[in-house]
Amino acid sequence: MAQWGQLKLLDPKYQEQVQQLYDDYFPMDIRQCLSKWIESIDWDYVAVEESLATVRFHDLLAQLDDQHSRFALEKNLLRQHNIRKLKRNFQDRFQEDPVHMAMIISRNLKEEQRILAAAKSIETDRENTQTSMVLEKQKLDNKVKDMKNKVQEADQNIKSLEYLQDEHDFKLNTLKNREHEINGLTPKQLEHEKLLIVEMCFKLKFKRGEVVGQLAEVLNMAEAVQSDLISEELPKWKKRQQSSCIGGPPNACLDQLQNWFTAVAESLQQVRQQLKELQELEQKYTYDNDPITQQKGLLEGRALALFRNILERSLVVERQPCMPTHPQRPLVLKTQVQFTVKLRFLVKLQEFNNKLKVKAFLNNSLPKFPNLNVRKFNILKSNPKVMSMEQYNGSLAAEFLHLKLQEQRVPGKGKKEGPLIVTEELHSICFESELRQSGLEIKLETISLPIVVISNVSQLPSGWASILWYNMLTSEPKNLEFFLSPPTVSWGQLSEVLSWQFSSVTKRGLNDEQLGMLADKLLGQKAQRNPEGLIPWTMFGAVKSQSEKSFPFWLWIEAILDLIKRHLLSLWNDGCILGFVSKEREKSMLTGKCPGTFLLRFSESSIDGAITFTWVEHDLYDKPVFHAVEPYTKKKLSVVSLPDIIRTYKVMAAENIPENPLRFLYPDIPKDKAFGKYYARDTEASEPMDVESPTTTGYMKTGLISVSEVHPSRLQDNMMPMSPDVFEELKRNVAPVLQCWNSPKDMLD
């Protein structure tokens, strides 16, 4: 398939990258109309041969003429008009510099190939993972199916055994009765009947041995499946749940795991019942070396142990503790604020419905470090919950909806300081229940993932940093002393989790370019973005002392996320914001671009989250000059949106008419095309004496304009001069705005 055809089949996120390669300077329409011809040319070679580039330029115009003729035959007036316009614009741009055209096409084709390769690589990995998961599921499904079939086969054999034993008993009793009759059997007949009974007895013994062997085989199969479930599938699900809690892919449904657990439990229940039936048969008839007598105790013990084991592992936390006010920040709980948690019992048997009462309590014990002096809490509104069948999916579940944590206060005693700060203290919520069935008593318990308890919402970002770090590096829920000596994390692990933080609250994660900038920030450029590079907790999330000027990396990221959610969500989702770009990279990206090309990036020095734009101009010697404005904070963006700031932004110098230096969003998207749909719409004000609308004031509306005052030497020569009177009047009018807004600084922040 041609390259362009492959690109059209990609996911939207990759097609968006392709769209960014094309603009009005080199329209995508030309790429699509002439895709076959364009891909047939070696543009790398053309780009270094000026004469050949000229030939190819005229060839391209001829190709456009051919397209125009085709549309003329089809009487497609709109396409004819568009082709004529494309050809005219193309001639204006590249007539004098066809090599530039060849370079653009060569670059775009290479970028397309890179996008295709990246998409295919990810798709291949995804397909391999999905195939592996499907094969594993099928393998386990087959094991469960074989186990259930073996149980049914054993059930049929037990019925056959009952029939055979009844027939044996009947013939034996009949023979005994006829032996005492006067007109009984002849010796020959008697001998024949005895031989038949002996033969039947052999069949009976063989059948008993076969049934006992089948039940032993069923238990072996159940043990193997149970081992897979408890040792592999359940831990995998819990690991997926951990990833889901910190923004990763949505956690896989528990229903499949529940079906497997239930199938094993049902099979074990059937085996236990079948063993009772064998015991009844044994009581009616037995003999030396009877396999039922020899094996029933062992089989009953194994069946009971397996049944107990799977029940003890079946209580799980389906939905981890979370405050409804912060659904995207589970496991961080604030005192006196309600939180919810949901449990499920994976063995879905009707006999367990409404039989299990679950209690919740906080486990603050740290056995290895008894002197940590961590805070103690009480769980309020923790009345036991009964596990019942849910209507929508039939699962056996219980949900705590109104739990609260209250810190224990000891009167007259000051708080002892421990080695851990509040947001590094880990606690766990434990859940207990008891199951009583047919003389069987089983204690059930499970534990939540570690939680961080805060007393002020300002501690939420630091608490979330602890949750991220813990769930990246360990799966042991009882490791509450984790932050006494927190391990390092590799950049490969952290980069994925950082991207999750954005994709979980927006429609866009972080791309390789953005992650590369963050890698340089954490590891340094000398590390060359090594996936194995290690980042310590002290750099990522540890709270700094007041004497330290720096702030944790995560608090910077969290502030940017909050900025995006509050003021920049649509711009971020549409890809207008590059965001994470270093100053050096910013310069290299803008170099060679048209004057007025700008990009949006986040401030690296603002702990509260801020965004700035940087644009390029050319001096008298055609060298690039870069300008950046002081970053816009949440406070400023709450007054005027960023698109409107960009639309109305002005640079003013003495004796010059203010102008907006922002023309193209990087790489070369016209400003109004990129941001036009976000501009505030103007509304007409009513007349002051408008009796039709008495609720309106009738005043002329005002708006804020972001103006930067600079020295005239920093402006381009093409700005129009103004008279001193006009300048003074304009300066007087915009002075209040200058006090509220910012002035440009060369490569600020």
TrEMBL record:
UniProt GO MF annotations: DNA binding; DNA-binding transcription factor activity, RNA polymerase II-specific
Record bears the keyword DNA-binding: yes
Keyword Transcription regulation listed: yes
A biological process term (GO) from this entry: defense response to virus
Top-level taxon of the source organism: Eukaryota
One GO cellular component term noted in the UniProt record for this chain: cytoplasm
Residues covered by the SH2 domain: 572-668
Cellular location(s): Cytoplasm; Nucleus
Entry keywords, A to Z: Acetylation, Activator, ADP-ribosylation, Coiled coil, Cytoplasm, DNA-binding, Isopeptide bond, Methylation, Nucleus, Phosphoprotein, SH2 domain, Transcription, Transcription regulation, Ubl conjugation
Cross-referenced Pfam families: SH2, STAT1_TAZ2bind, STAT_alpha, STAT_bind, STAT_int, STAT_linker
Gene3D superfamilies: EF-hand, SH2 domain, signal transducer and activator of transcription 1, STAT transcription factor, all-alpha domain, STAT transcription factor, DNA-binding domain, STAT transcription factor, N-terminal domain
InterPro entries xrefs: p53-like_TF_DNA-bd_sf (IPR008967), SH2 (IPR000980), SH2_dom_sf (IPR036860), STAT (IPR001217), STAT1_C_sf (IPR038295), STAT1_TAZ2-bd_C (IPR022752), STAT_linker (IPR048988), STAT_N_sf (IPR036535)
Coiled coil (UniProt feature): 137-164, 261-288
Cited PANTHER family: SIGNAL TRANSDUCER AND ACTIVATOR OF TRANSCRIPTION
Family note: Belongs to the transcription factor STAT family.
Protein name: Signal transducer and activator of transcription
UniProt source species: Coregonus suidteri
